[in-house]
Write a structure and sequence with these properties.
single chain, alpha+beta, Ribosomal Protein L22, Chain A, four-stranded mixed β-sheet, 6 helices
Length: 234
């Protein structure tokens, strides 16, 4: 089984952002308009356009023709074209988007930009499983903040693959803590086979891909800087 991961840079000029908007549905454009900060609106437009371009390329359909619906936990899935067998997930932070696609399993992706977080250990102790917080506390202080962001993406990628949303407590399962390789250790109800992998989509960014299957080969590629024009040539 192969999971495909696409990385897209989201810092686009006005012309490319306008192209992105043409790919989105009316509902997506309305959601973008509800953001108060222009930067948040622009990242929504560009990340969802990149999502559609990656999926449209994979499925061989126009990106604008894709239609999405949501599971009960809020997780999006492809409703049209129907029965593609492709499970998908999107995450973005700062100017980076990470898109995951796989057939025959469920996938979750999460990306976070490293930023100052002096209370990382307090957050871990209040939100994460005790063994994760202890492992984080045992790290040298200089390495703890970066490890926290790596750990956070591992947790969020698992939650997003499960699709349970906020109903899945972060303390209900454990993953390894960086710098250890990404792995699911335990989860309420018993651990099914999983594949977890960390990537560095950009300097200072942490990302994790979580697939609910064992032995998944994860391939990673980046969109070119001119990705917003990819649809123009079709």
């Amino acid at each position: 089984m192969i999971a495909d991961v696409v990385i897209a840079a989201l810092a686009l000029d006005a012309g490319r952002l306008a192209r992105c908007a043409t790919l989105l549905s009316q509902d997506e454009r309305a959601r973008a308009d509800r953001f108060l900060r222009p930067a948040d609106r622009d990242r929504f437009l560009s990340s969802h356009a990149a999502f559609r371009l990656a999926l449209g390329t994979e499925l061989g359909v126009p990106p604008g023709s894709l239609r999405f619906e949501r599971e009960s936990g809020g997780r999006p899935f492809i409703a049209a074209p129907a029965d593609t067998g492709l499970d998908v997930n999107l995450s973005h932070s700062g100017d980076i988007a990470v898109i995951g696609m796989v057939r025959g399993a469920r996938i979750g992706v999460d990306v976070e930009i490293h930023r100052p977080l002096p209370d990382a250990l307090r957050i871990a102790r209040s939100q994460f499983a005790p063994d994760e917080a202890s492992a984080l506390a045992a790290l040298p202080a200089i390495a703890r903040e970066a490890a926290f962001f790596g750990l956070w993406t591992r947790k969020e990628a698992v939650v997003k693959a499960l699709g349970a949303g906020l109903s899945q407590p972060l303390s209900s399962f454990s993953v390894t803590v960086p710098p250890d390789p990404a792995r699911l250790l335990r989860i309420a109800g018993g651990a099914e086979p999983w594949t977890l992998a960390m990537i560095e989509p950009a300097y200072g960014a942490f990302a994790t891909i979580a697939v609910m299957a064992a032995g998944v080969n994860i391939t990673v590629r980046s969109f070119p800087g001119t990705w917003a024009e990819m649809n123009d040539a079709k």
